[in-house]
Amino acid sequence: MAVLKVKFTRTKRDKLAQILWILNWVSVITGVILFSLGLFLKIEIKKRSEMMAKGEINSVPNMLISVGVIACIINFLGGKICYDCSDTNKFSRWRLVLLPYIVCTFCFTFCILVGAVMCYTMRNELEESLYLGLRDAIKFYKDTDIPGRCFLKKTIDLLQIGFQCCGNNGFRDWFEIQWISVRYLNMVSTEVLDRLKSNVDGKFLVDGVPFSCCNPNSPRPCIQYHLTNNSAHYNYDFMMEELNIWMKGCRQALLDYYTDIMRSIGLTVLIIWLFELCVLIGVRYLQTAMKTVLLLGDPECESDGWLLENSFVETAKYNFNIIKNLGKANQISTISEMNDPNMDVQTANYGPDNVPSKSIPTASQT
Q: Cβ(276)–Cβ(30) under 8 Å?
């Protein structure tokens, strides 16, 4: 029994074909939107690629870009097919193409759904990439004279100022690395030498942060050094001075920024998927209705359209059997009491070696 069967008159079929023709052109625009969203996300990730470890972060924008291009091609072809389906004679040329087109479009809409889901599941991969990338970038903050790293100080300073953050997980990350270049250390100072000797790795560590961590909203001048030493500053308590420097880590700030972008993109892609699914259902109804018209042979008659010709269970079993039997066409049957088909040939029980003696002609005696 057909699933969701609908009866169509000639007028309804023509209107459905016209509506689908328009919707397919709208779908071309949605394909451009998907392409633009993927390109936008790729550019946003590229802007701060120095802060991210190499990984599969670009898989989401790349998929959106690919799906957008495919959407434009598929829906352009779909618009042409739906326009011709209003005429029975023109439909005949697409009759064999339409079902494979619907199958391909179904797979395409599934890819759109996967893209929407990936936008929401990308957070964990992005968080790990940001953690590793920021950790390495902060380590190279002091290397302003080394080619390939000299730009990182400016990049991190702009990042901390723009996103109002400090460090990777927080401002204490700067306490664990040497972020001041040796070039700017007074190597004859007793304090500097003591700090270098007190560290196992010979690093100059201070309880201070770069200027870019300072919060301009602080009512007092920014305190960058001796942040945890209350006695080093007048009327100062580092546990209470939350406005002095940014408390949020840059990893969390960037993660929140990209999460908001991906949620917005994911919602847009999900809406596009629902729209494409509706168009696909309409095309399926049009294809089955026109197929019925060809079988009846009367362009003016009423025809039935459906989503599935049989029930879901029967359709699933049928497709499963097709997949199951793939590759078995060339296999030789091994059923008992059955010989090789190439050898199973009926042979006569007589021949040159077993012809009855009576049937052998004898030479006449003269």
A: yes
